[in-house]
Amino acid sequence: MYFVLLIILSALFAMTLGIPDVAFPQGDEIMHIRSIRESLEVGSYTLPVLSGLPNPYKPPLLFWMGMFFDKIFGISYFSERLVSFLFGLGTLALFYKFYQSISKSEKESKLATLAFAFSFLSLKFFGILMMEGALVFFTLLYVYLFFKSKEKENLTYVAWGSFLVGFGYLLKGPILHIYIVLFLISYLYLKMIRVRKGHFHISFKPLLKEKQTLLLFSLSLLIPILWISYLYLFTNSGKELLRFFFITENMGKFYAANQSGLRIWGGWLLYTIPFSIPLFHTVWKIIKRTSKDKNRIMTMVLLVFLLFVTIFHLMPNRKDPYYVTPFISFLFLIPALKKENWETIILSKCNKYSIPVLYFLLVALAVVLRLPSLFAVSLTGIVLSISAIAFQNKNKSFYGVFISQLLLVPIIMLFFVRPMADPNIADQLTDVKGKELCVIAENPWTAMDVQNKLIDSKVKFALPLTYRDTCPDAEMIVTFSEANLTEDWKKVNSWFQWKQHLNLDSKETLKALLKMDKRTFQSEVNVWKKEELR
């Protein structure tokens, strides 16, 4: 019954993949989809292109897989996002297997997998075309095979894990290798360093013992070496691509800090929603009182590893919260390592009383934003979660709170984000098929987004002052930024969409909220059609 439910839920989730504007978008997805479609259009299958040039930002695996599914199912958002969806299913299956191998409990493994599947991480990155969903899979796969090799005393597992890490390079470059190196350092740190009577003791015996594991990691370099050699030796722009990718795209991120480090710490809280409180409460209990159970080393290795990757991501100039997504699955493994059952975690005071509070916040949002569906559903959530807390039967109380908690992110997606979403561009521009469209905006990605949604139209990007030179033959213009058009352009349509960057202070924001003036947070998009002057 459990797996039937999981299949049904997965099918329902898969049905949403074809919706252009997802509930939780990520800007880079626009570029990834554009690169796939443009590569198919020009027939550049080996080396993906973007804006007519080889794509220098990311290696090709995600684009190759997107092109493969576009060829099979036709060019669509569904085909391209199917890549991340399949990596998501693989991650959930792997997570279930990993959890069960630690907890030895089928029930606990099912509950943990369900919780992980309904986390913000899963519901976002397993439904959009980003590298992060695949990185979650490859990172978890290596760690699982590493511990499996220790359990079975068989190096074949870690050999396969090392080799498969090489495919991870084709997703986002050397970053996965860095993650795995940090994991191995974490493991060796726990094995080599001991603190006894206030003194550090370092033993090099574990280093010698793990010599074969470390040497086998060299297998992860096979795929990267082959790909780098191909670029360097057999493509015209290979040297320039490699120089840009390694120096500008990767090393360039360490040039200077331009974002707050709090964004990384916030990522841990954000992508574990709605289970942030119970998971971090469990971690806090481990830190406060370390037990000497058989999983102690594995638990401490994972915690040190999570600390190391956090420190690593605090170093570059960009500190986007989603950088921590490849490691969220390990937080969901912590209860298994500590032999904590999910009933105890969910029914802890700090967790179960937080659920009605969250639903109360959603009710308040529904009132302020005038969303009747959200109000009704959130009110039901309050009744269900409070009733569950009041149940004398512990089993009923657990499932009442657990289900209320699982549904939090889907409710936000369906009843809060969807009603507040921008109008669909394809619905606003119904008569542009086969026409040349000029998009005036501050960012070329806006034009890429329009082109992705209007497959049958030719879209060009122009800055407000350069549209005459950039789009001399355009039949229609869509202005996302203010532009002074000539008199032969007539406005035929307009709509409002949410601003991506707001320059409002707290006083202006509060004033706009109290007046329920959403136009403060929106900008007008105008559609212009060329007409002959008399």
From TrEMBL:
Residues 58-194 form the Glycosyltransferase RgtA/B/C/D-like domain. It is found in: Cell membrane. The chain crosses the membrane at residues 61-78, 85-102, 114-147, 154-170, 176-193, 214-233, 264-284, 296-315, 321-337, 358-391, 397-417. This is Phospholipid carrier-dependent glycosyltransferase. InterPro entries: LipidA_mod_glycosyltrf_83, RgtA/B/C-like. Keywords: Cell membrane, Glycosyltransferase, Membrane, Transferase, Transmembrane, Transmembrane helix. It is a multi-pass membrane protein. It holds the Pfam family PMT_2.
